[in-house]
Amino acid sequence: MTQQQFNTELLYxxxxxxxxxxxxxxxxxMLDAHGFQALIETEEWSLLSGEKYYVTRxxxxxxxxxxxxxxxxxxxxxxxxxxxxxxIKPNPVIASNGxxxxxxxxxxxxxxNSWFDRDLSIAGRVSYINADGQIEDTxxxxxxxLAVIASLAIHLDKEANKNRTVNAxxxxxxxxxxxxxxxxxxxxxxxxxxxxxxxxxILSHDLSFYDTQKAAYIGINREFIASARLDNxxxxxxxxxxxxxxxxxxxxxxxCSDHEEVGSESSSGAGGSFLESVLQRLxxxxxxxxxxxxxxxxxxxxxxxxxxxxxxxxxxxxxxxKINEGVVVKVNANQxxxxxxxxxxxxxxxxxxxxxxxxxxxxxxxxGCGSTIGPITATRLGVETIDVGLPTFAMHSIRExxxxxxxxxxxxxxxxxxxxxxx
Length: 423
What we know:
This protein is 25% helix and 28% strand. The chain is an alpha/beta fold. The chain folds into 2 domains: 3-83 and 228-420, Zn peptidases (Aminopeptidase, 3-Layer(aba) Sandwich), CATH 3.40.630; 85-211, Aminopeptidase i, Domain 2 (Roll), CATH 2.30.250.10.
């Protein structure tokens, strides 16, 4: 696969995935096209060696795997489907000063200043009563710009460029219409009719605002990709591409979980039982399952902080990852990342096989360090784990920036990992 082909599909994936629900649908389509079979958690599984499968939970987390006849160890790839955003509250309509606004709650540690003056749309999941009187869930995307969070003019806030703070309750409430009356459920019902679905009653929704600006190449030589949700759809895309292009006799497993941005403590998050229960169903024998897990390697893939030319002092001077200069191995002495010398060695060996360079990242010793699904999954399963990422600017902004080269390099290293499996 050429870099151009890889990135063209990446941009399409980013644009098609405004929420974890949509990202899941996009990943399922890719897996379906490459011969994967869908499993359902609530049904009995009859798995066959040499086949490829996937299973989902809560429409927002997915596990896909190959099933070779002699399964001794998996190359596991972990990522997360969620990104910081503005979630619409259950009773969202606010009528004030001749305008209609929708109340929102920040999801994750989003960079709130970046959400002002953007053309916002709405997407997510809706639960409703259908024409047969049954509860039904569906995923919707309005696609067109519907709302905006207008900035306060500089004339009314002379300190805006010096000391601007954002109140999450009062300052980031999107404007969606003018007037004094607005029926939010009626808007959702109209959208459902457009999608060929009739609803007698809206029961609940899990909806978010998102920026309608498309993913794009940036730079005089088109060397950067600018988009919303690069953290962490970039890794979800790479992981899915790997699963789509490995042979059925190569033992690979991908787990892309929801709720990482809020701590992973949910039934569909990395702190939940999803991966553990799937592994139990793949290997019913406890002894063999433990041996398989201990032979496996989990590569936790999330974005990494590239050194910013305007703020280089925010990095340790010996650990300054650069965009378009390779995959980043993330290390933290206090186990905020799960990398250790043994797992790093296995990953570096695969990079050598693939002919790729890697970079290292360690947070400054006087600054706090974020975390990933890596330590959570390693703790729950006891699987050997490494945390890696693709260098990125503006993490948790409404629009982030990454390089055009690095994602394909991660893809190549992950494909090479099976050659260095622990026997």
